[in-house]
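Hi L.,

As promised, Acyl-CoA thioesterase:
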Amino acid sequence: MTVGKPILISAELSLTTNFQDADPMGVIYHGNYFRYFEEARHQLMNKLNYSYREMEASGYVWPIIDTRVKYVKSIPYDHPIRVTATLTEWENRLRVDYVIYDGETGARMTKGYTMQVAVSIDKREMCFVSPKIFTDKVEAYHANNA
């Protein structure tokens, strides 16, 4: 177990929004924000060496059970953004917090989170604590980045 304040594990990606992701008003359709969150979460899990394929191979799937998004400022199409994903809970569930920043000004445009729980593929049961395979990866990351 990590002693003291744990190191937050974060990942970041930069992209330029696409025209096809915009609504008729020229701003990114609200449902597409979750795609950006997903891309950042994918980068985060890769940092832990626990990609979606590795999750499945370890005997677990991690469905999202709760999510929230706060739209602070609309994002136009053809606009640079920076998306961060930070692992903030992992012992009993997986909580990832997200922030989308304006790629030009650095202003916060959106924030949100997702929560996921481990479900055993074999038993089809939700786990009340995160599997050891996952917590070991988080602890290893902390040990190697202290």
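The longest strand covers residues 80-89.

Thanks again for sending the construct details.

K.
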